[in-house]
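Worked example 4.2. Below are the chains of a multi-component assembly; read each line carefully before continuing.
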Amino acid sequence: MSYLATTDFANDGAFLDGVARRLRGDLDLSWLDEPRERVRCRPQNERRGLTLRDLDVGRYGWSAMPELIRQNRSFAPRGAEQPDGLPDLQADVNRKSEVWAYNLDGYYEEAMTRQWNATTDIPWGELLATDLPEDIGKAYAQLLTFLSEVEMIATDVPAKWLGRLNADFFEVKNFIASQAMDEARHAEIFRKRALSTGFGLMRASSHNEHNLKFLRDADSFAEASLALHLQAEGMVLTLFRFSEYVSPTEGDKKLFRLVMQDEARHVGYGMQHLKWVVDHFPERRETVHRHLDEAENFVFGAGYATEVMEPFIILAGKGTKKANIDEGIRIQKMFQTKQGDEYFERLAKCGLPERRERSRLWKMLELAKEAG
Amino acid sequence: MAYYAEKDFFEDDRLVELVTSILAGNLTLEWFDVETARLQARPADPNRGLTYQDCNLGPYGYDAIPELVRNRNSMASRGSVLVPKLPDLGYTVNRKSDVWSDDVCALYEEAKSRRWAPAVDIPWSELLSADDPLREAAMAQLCTLLEEVALVAMEAPARWVFVINQEFLEQKSFLCAQMLDEARHVEACRKRALVSARGLGRASVPAEQALKELLSAETYPEASLATNLLLGSISLAMYQALAALARTRADRLLATLSMQDVARSVAYGVGHVRYHLRHQPARAPMLNEYLDRTEHTMAGIVGSTEWLEPLIVLAAGSRERAALRRGGAFARRWFTQTVAAYLERCEAAGLGDRRQRSHLPGLANRLSA
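Applying the procedure described above to all two chains together yields the following structure tokens:
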């Protein structure tokens, strides 16, 4: 049997007498006169409405939050009075620098205002009016199968951590919830697009799934975020940009643009979180490097995922004739270079410029560049 | 770090050879000859776009999910071809009737199309000139507790998304929509409390004890019953009351928009339990027994000072004794109706008539006396 409340409320005479008394209009009203910090938050900019930033006031705000949350172990909203007897929710993550990010509130507000709908925001009629040739259609269906496969990991991972974070980090929890919804929408859009091509879903990707398991099983939120938001989603963001470029119709380009908007937000959070970790929890630096060592091992091993690289080459070259394949390979190499460069650039911006020196992936990419 | 790749790929000569060969133009095309069903999803109604119902086709559709998912434990898309060496992602909820509801796809579509953003969709400036300190204090206290409730309602689906098999994609997507709905309620209620000029109120010991019990349900059907049906019924009734008692458009909108979201969770809860019991009728006694020992949490939440008193004050509109008695009468009717609606939902879900075995009707009668 699971947790049981310390009181059986339906059979507690004193509790029920109190309820009956209140229902007769005999109120205690102790909550009304309790001393508290009285603030009136107001929108700083009427056009943006009342944002989370407008609530960053006094004991209610995040600026006043200590690095270690020692006091609140319950669901008490940050800043609320905490009477004795609140339950211990046994949060696993109680250190601000494990979860926080610069501009966190901005990412959340953006997520709330930029929700879109895969059912109605894509010109499905236009997409269905375009018949794709066999080679392009199959290559596209395979790429979409891969994308629909990877997207839901980014719902599972945030969901796994949401309940483990202290309630004082509600802005992070809210951002995580918005990310889970974003990723559900991505899984939906890629699945729907694959099924609307008429070629069906194709083959699962073994190597990539092991990479997903690596993301899922990280030991800490900071490691999970590093691998998911910054490394994996960062690289997927570059893939989306190139997919927009190589996608067969205007409707598909719109699809990738919408998805990129969400993905960029997640990468933004990942970067600002890592920057926060490096600035506020420098002892973590070595752990970060070690986690990236293994994350990059998976990235390099993705060469085995021919079901991703080859459809991309065919789509980029627009066919399977030799000239098409050659052009596709040229674009694929460009993509790989760009993906690697952007990844290491992001890490440098987060305060890890030494990553290039340490990384075997960087060395391999440099060798590939030299080899042309 | 808990999981490692099967090898150090940087030392893998075979990999370098493979990639070099592909980049020299020798594509393997192993994936190209995969044979899956060639079906094309089309919108049944172009005005509604391409829905998940439109994608319910052959082996790709949700109708094709077997009751017991035995051989798909990775993230492979439903209907795609499995390859050797796919990892096991450790899902522990693998039975369709443990999670499914006939209306889950429609509810997911509704959740997306009825999205709202508290920052901009509530006319907050209306509240800045509020000149009734008692009312503002009651709203601040009630919204403090509603923020606690929403935190729990956000965490409940999150706990389960991670362990539910990927085959149930549409249902997992609905849980993600629920998480976002509740994040929105956390935000909206906190904002409402903090524009009141009162600050946040007091956390509630009885309510939190009850919420922790609801949150820690051991199986998904119990968890869904606890949070969607039981807690959802309470929240829905409270937002209805707030809408009825609202004096500004801002408060009415906050309540009605939240109601819309919570009603979706309640609908899923009813549909889910109904589907569950249609396929596993032997579970009905167990779920009824679960409710027998868990329904007291409803009393813990709605009977807590922090929930009940602000509601009475809002209905009374004043601290005068006669007004508070009127407020108390409003709360009694509210509680009786909330219990009745909840029990009707239990019956609609297939749990039978719980009026005889549940503590709640007796409690409502006793408190109304």
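Take a moment to check your reading of the output against the notes. The mean pLDDT of chain B is 96. Chain B has one domain: 99-368.
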